[in-house]
Amino acid sequence: MSDAPDDARAALSALAAPDHWPRFDRVRVDAATGRRSAVLMLFGAADGSDGERPIAPDDAAVLLLRRASSLRHHPGQIGFPGGGLEDGDDGPVGAAVREAVEETGIDPRGVELFSPLPELPLAVSNNLVTPVPAWWRHPSPVWAVDAAETEEVFLAPVGELLDPQNRRSVARVRGMRIPAMPAFQLGERLIWGFTGVVLSGLFDTLGWTRPWDAGRLVEPDA
């Protein structure tokens, strides 16, 4: 990682949307009928301390949650806090923050928001999703606010996500072959699907990715 930025916050704050940002060329969502959603990609210090000092990527973490297994869409999957835009939201940024508060109890006053990334299609739920990068300047307690929607909330250490031993590919779901997509295996937690693709693309864009074996396959339980 010698060529990667050594300050995670600075890298995220300068994040651009180059042509190689995660592409979903095989995915189609009708812009006229698709639901608009947003997710908060919140990074901070892995040890939970204030994130105002320079923090190397290996010392950072990202806030994730596991969706309730009873939900209709993406049950039991791990993802970013987020959800659909509502009339009172200040665009995708406002929706991402509101949903994060509702799902994880985060104090938004401690969050530094950066420019949102381009919409990405999520065909299975007919969504156009806007990722909103953010930095956790002043961490606050988080928890699964509504057990009917969220099973757990946790910080995923970026150093563990970047570890080549924890990288996987998903090429089969429910016994059916799919186009291979990147995933991350952290103990019993498998981060795959939309979230895995976005995290992998983010790390590629920031220059954080380490060489890994895309031939190491895993099949999700769900």
Automatic annotation (TrEMBL):
Coiled coil: none annotated. It holds the Pfam family NUDIX. SUPFAM superfamilies: Nudix. PANTHER family: MITOCHONDRIAL COENZYME A DIPHOSPHATASE NUDT8, NUDIX HYDROLASE. This is CoA pyrophosphatase. Residues 33-178 form the Nudix hydrolase domain. The keyword Manganese applies. GO terms for molecular function: coenzyme A diphosphatase activity; metal ion binding. It comes from Microbacterium protaetiae. Keywords: Hydrolase, Magnesium, Manganese, Metal-binding.
